[in-house]
Records
---
Amino acid sequence: MPSPATSNEQRATKNRILSGVQPTGNLHLGNYLGAIRNWVAMQQEYECLFMLADLHAITVPQEPSALRTNVRETAAAYIACGIDPEKSAIFHQSAVSAHAELTWILSCHTPLGWLNRMTQFKEKAGKHREEAMLGLYSYPVLMAADILVYKATHVPVGEDQKQHLELARDIAGAFNRHYQTEFFPLPQPVILGQAARVMSLRDGTKKMSKSDESDYSRINLTDDADAIAKKIKKATSDSCATIGENIDARPEASNLLTLYATLKGITREQALAECGSANFSAFKQMLTDVAVAHLSPITHKMRELLQAPDYIDQVLVRGVARAQGIAGPVMKGVKETVGFL
């Protein structure tokens, strides 16, 4: 049975969310629709912590000054998209040492076989697996520590992160069983909506990504109206007469329709009824109008915030303090459980 202190802590964290993105520059429409916009709504229901995952970012080489710039830019994007720093903690992961500290302890309770099953390492390392860094291989344990150090009970996940959340649950369970405790709650997924997986504007079978060589594959949150219009105009088309014709067999058209529906706040069925008879050219103009109307206020707010780096730094300082206030007692309990003096 859990101790009274553990039970009280679990009751106190009944509805706590932890999520974040890597601050590697060029946050795009996929980051917004697939994650950040959903976080904004979650602030009403959960206690929320939104990190800038800079420890994860260094699994690939980073230029130090660019990383610092990207941390501030990503924080500005969070705020511009509607994350309220008075309601939610916005913080850079590296400033809370408990993330790295808990990672080591959890690594000592994670069988190699579990990590060998992680598909993202295989995809990212590719044919050069022997040259890949340990951090790229073991970062799912850091992801588990990110969640468990706050005893987060819910984690927003897209399709490509489900495996990592399952690993976090497995590691939490292994720790609890080893020490015969119920110290860590098993985090539950919060499955995101219809635009959880936003695809490339150039290839509807690939996820929109800031690592794609072509800037025309994505709409960045810093793009102005002209850039958005140009990218949508150049988005891959096909020879079908209308946007709605055999839509489920046409990945590029299907992706654009989903973007239109999500930005407008309607279902795909409603979007089809509204513009399914339009040709590609006419539909792209409709999508451009909706995208510009939705994203321009975000872009404008981001630019304002980036002109006030001191304010962004103050937000991060407050966020770090709130995060440490939660993580500190959890780490104290972990150390007592493990047997550290």
---
Amino acid sequence: MTLTESILMELDQEAQTTKWVLDRIPEDKLTWKPHPKSFSLGQLALHIASVPAGVTTIALQDSVEAPNFTQPEPKSRQEILDTFSMSLETAKANLKKMDDVRLASTWSLTRGVRW
């Protein structure tokens, strides 16, 4: 089994639990914040939903400049679930573009001046 196949299997397995959790976020609590300086529950959930695509997109490159991060407020739980579904499909497509050498290589995420 290749590293790509192994990661794809694990992604599918972990996605089931993640979807289960995202699906149980109360629709009326999306704007709730654990602390005034924190992201809202909806923003945190949308961030989690977008991680698979984001990480694999970065991993396709040797170096990436970190963007200014802003997290939108989702309008509904369905938006979070749709984002997660699209993120998984993007992640799988990205992973299929990589071989074991690429998956084992080092990449960097930088901010401003590189040292």
---
Amino acid sequence: MTTTMRAVDPMIAELDQEAQATRRMLERVPADKLAWRPHPKSMTLGQLALHVATVCGSVGNFLEMDSFDVDDADFNPAEPASKDEILQRFEEEQANARAKLEAMDNDRATADWILTKGGDPLWTVPRIGLARNLMFNHLYHHRGQLSVYLRLLDVPVPVTYGRTADENPFG
């Protein structure tokens, strides 16, 4: 039996793989430092960790839409009540993101998705490009920020793709 790979199948594998590194990073977040921020303009540790925990699932919801208007967005990051909330939301949102990707056939994955502002198009991209840019690249950007927050708090930074100054899986 020959199985044809769908356009989203590599992304599902990537989501599963990256979930391990993201979970390790979120598990290191000190529960007593959620209100800490490195700079007045920065998100708090809790806000950033919750954003990292939920970004894939949030973008997964966009995959079901044909467009989204930024005027409808709330860009104020939520403040979690606890580290347990962050970890629970991570598990829920990973499952949501995976389900949204699983549901996409090739026609849907390659169909245009449009970002608008006040109804005016800002960005048109194949839906799979939305997943790459706003789901994955966005996650990597903020997960990198989270690793810096951990370093500034003197929390051992976990392995992401290879050794860190604190962990060496190859040694």
---
Amino acid sequence: MASGLLFVFACGMGTLLLLVGTFTALLAGIPKSGVWMVRINRLFGWILLGVGEYFLIQAGMLWF
């Protein structure tokens, strides 16, 4: 059972690597980092803080 799960996991990870290797030309077309990257990082930082706060609120509701 465990060996079957490991095999399926390995196939999934291998498929991801094959896809990334196949479409590297698309990845090369991504624009260079700059101001837009700083904005994206800040946006995802706020999203991460918001989700963390949400989970803390949900955990507090379970406590009482």
